[in-house]
């Protein structure tokens, strides 16, 4: 009887000790994941990050993840590399893209694939702006946010400090979940993706923005809708 | 029974089993594996911007490769599912009523073997196909190997239980 009691007590002690260790590991793991998701203590990624192994084009395209409008089955693909602080990119976004959408995309002839190409240098906020648009994409509002960024370009672009407050304000105006957007913006989320966008552009020979490529052919004047439309119409299947 | 409560003899026998240490170990290792797989899945879903991969690591290359998806489901999601299943079975297996249950042991061995083989396959891909290493994938492979080794103790359990 005494032996049985002792064995029972040992079992109980074993299980208790196990549960204590288990709880410690569980709490440490949850804390570590929370810390990683929250952006390592709130650091905001404002510049491209180190990205290994991007010599492999397939890995680069997979990491870059372009944002599309239009059917993937469309016979013509228009790729645009853009910088949110570039005024001509703003012209493309506000004047050319809407016409392409209303005509060629709507007719099922064209798919537009958007890639970030943050120039850096004087365009010191374009990287974080690109990340902000990707954060909006988390809530299914990439294109609306993209349009707002270009529409408000002159307002946030001239700021000396990183215009996080403006970006959050635009998210609020679009009705995005403010805490989810802020959590994403004030982290390093999408830093690799936007960096890969830039590297993909470099790999394709992009050296200015906006650069537009239609079915692997670079367009000389991407701001002329009529010329773009003609070129799209000449593509096989269009 | 001095307390007047009737208990089935089989329950008493099972209740007399100590919680198996190997199952405790498997539960702990599965929990760690679950966090590693969860971390990778959160990255894959875009919730984490960059994986902590060390200077020489190429986690993003491995994650961006076509091998990072298996049967149209991201590999980390398989990891989360597998480690969760192992965790649940191992935790169930240390409860007094199931501590000596051979069927639980066989499920642990089966899951451990699947995890081990799948991890070995992914490690071979890293070494010979992708030519890039991800420390988290390697860590998960080590955990899967340890889990499989611990699970083999279940095969020594008497058949009557």
Please, could you describe this protein's structure?
- The complex is a heterodimer of chains A (238) and B (161).
- Chain A has 238 residues and is of the alpha+beta class.
- Chain A has ten helices and five strands.
- Chain A is elongated, with a radius of gyration of 24 Å.
- Helices cover 63% and strands 2% of the residues of chain B.
- Chain B contains six helices and two strands.
- In chain B, a hairpin with a 2-residue loop joins strand 1 and strand 2.
- The interface between A and B is medium-sized, with 37 and 31 residues.
SSE ordering of chain B = HHHEEHHH
Number of strands of chain B: 2
Proportion of residues in β-strands of chain B:
under 5%
> Distance between termini of chain A?
89 Å
Largest sheet of chain B: 2 strands, antiparallel
How many strand units of chain A?
A: 5
Strand order of the largest sheet of chain B: 1-2
Write the layout of secondary structure elements.
The complex is a heterodimer of chains A (238) and B (161).
Chain A: H1 2-37, H2 57-64, E1 67-69, E2 76-82, H3 87-105, E3 110-116, H4 126-138, H5 142-151, H6 153-157, H7 164-173, H8 178-185, H9 191-203, E4 211-214, E5 217-218, H10 225-234
Parallel strand pairs in A: 2-3
Antiparallel strand pairs in A: 1-3, 2-4, 4-5
Chain B: H1 9-15, H2 21-44, H3 59-64, E1 69-70, E2 73-74, H4 75-93, H5 102-130, H6 135-151
Antiparallel strand pairs in B: 1-2
């Amino acid at each position: 009887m005494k032996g049985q009691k002792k064995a029972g007590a040992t079992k109980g002690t074993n299980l208790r000790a196990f549960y204590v260790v288990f709880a410690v590991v569980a709490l440490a793991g949850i804390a570590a994941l929370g810390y990683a998701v929250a952006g390592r203590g709130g650091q905001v990624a404002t510049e491209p990050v180190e990205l290994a192994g991007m010599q492999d084009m397939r890995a680069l395209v997979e990491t870059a993840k372009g944002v599309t409008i239009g059917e993937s089955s469309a016979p013509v693909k228009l790729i645009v590399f853009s910088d949110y602080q570039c005024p001509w990119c703003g012209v493309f976004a506000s004047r050319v893209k809407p016409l392409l959408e209303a005509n060629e995309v709507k007719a099922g002839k064209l798919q537009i694939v958007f890639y970030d190409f943050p120039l850096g240098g004087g365009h010191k906020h374009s990287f974080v702006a690109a990340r902000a648009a990707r954060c909006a994409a988390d809530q299914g509002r990439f294109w609306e946010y993209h349009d707002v960024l270009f529409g408000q370009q002159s307002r946030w672009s001239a700021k000396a400090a990183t215009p996080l407050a403006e970006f959050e304000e635009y998210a609020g105006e679009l009705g995005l979940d403010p805490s989810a957007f802020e959590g994403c913006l004030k982290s390093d989320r999408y830093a690799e993706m936007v960096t890969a966008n830039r590297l993909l552009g470099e790999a394709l020979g992009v050296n200015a923005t906006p650069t537009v490529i239609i079915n692997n052919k670079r367009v000389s004047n991407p701001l002329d809708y009529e010329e773009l439309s003609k070129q799209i119409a000449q593509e096989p299947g269009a | 029974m001095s307390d007047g409560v009737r208990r089935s003899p089989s329950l008493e026998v099972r209740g007399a089993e100590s919680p198996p240490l190997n199952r405790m170990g498997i539960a702990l290792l599965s929990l760690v594996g679950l966090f590693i797989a969860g971390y990778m899945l959160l990255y894959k879903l875009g919730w984490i911007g960059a994986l902590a991969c060390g200077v020489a690591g190429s986690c993003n290359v491995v994650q961006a490769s076509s091998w990072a998806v298996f049967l149209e489901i991201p590999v980390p999601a398989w990891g989360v599912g597998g480690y969760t299943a192992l965790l649940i079975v191992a935790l169930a297996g240390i409860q007094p009523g199931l501590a000596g249950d051979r069927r639980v042991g066989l499920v642990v061995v089966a899951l451990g073997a699947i995890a081990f083989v799948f991890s070995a396959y992914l490690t071979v891909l890293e070494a010979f196909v992708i030519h890039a290493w991800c420390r988290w994938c390697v860590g998960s492979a080590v955990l899967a190997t340890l889990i499989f080794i611990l699970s083999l103790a279940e095969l020594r359990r008497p058949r009557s239980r």
